[in-house]
Design a protein that fits this description.
With 150 residues, this protein is α+β, with helices and mostly antiparallel strands. It has 1 helix and 8 strands, in the order H-E-E-E-E-E-E-E-E. Strand 2 and strand 3 form a beta hairpin. It is elongated.
Length: 150
């Protein structure tokens, strides 16, 4: 008896097997995407600051409080805080002609900028109790008619 050399049979899928493998991978990845999308459904709330001509939310914190700007009937821009219960508070730092809140943290402190009557920009921090701190860092430009804090 003569010994025959052993040859490994090539494992090459047929066209049908390749198509089935591709469809299986597609189905599994699609199921994974659908599950992730359902896990975090978005909720939208449409609101306007009462009596405003334009409301622009800027930031929301983890508790659902929102800060942003609104324009009044004279097109003056003010800051607002919308609490998670839906109530509104308007605010302007002392000496502000236009207020631009930028962000709110978990504690409810709001940071932003405002322009005074001489068109000089300043930074501000509004504490959760409603008190303000004006921020004009050393070296910032305080030039009437020109750029302000920055």
């Amino acid at each position: 008896m003569t010994a025959q050399p052993l040859h490994a049979a090539p494992i090459v899928p047929t066209t049908g097997q390749r198509a089935m493998l591709a469809l299986s991978c597609l189905a599994l990845s699609t199921l994974g995407m659908v599950h992730a999308a359902n896990a975090q459904e978005a909720t939208y709330k449409i609101f306007n600051f009462p009596g405003s001509t334009n409301t622009q939310p800027k930031s929301i914190n983890a508790k659902g409080a929102i800060t942003g700007t609104y324009s009044d009937a004279h097109y003056v821009i003010h800051g607002f805080l919308r609490a998670s219960d839906g109530s509104f508070t308007t605010f302007d730092p002392p000496g502000s002609a236009y207020t631009f809140p930028a962000s709110i943290n978990r504690a409810g402190a709001i940071a932003g900028a405002y322009t005074d009557a001489q068109f000089v920009s300043h930074g501000f921090l509004r504490s959760p109790d409603g008190s303000f701190t004006t921020l004009d860092p050393p070296g910032s430009k305080v030039d009437p008619g020109g750029p302000g804090t920055g």
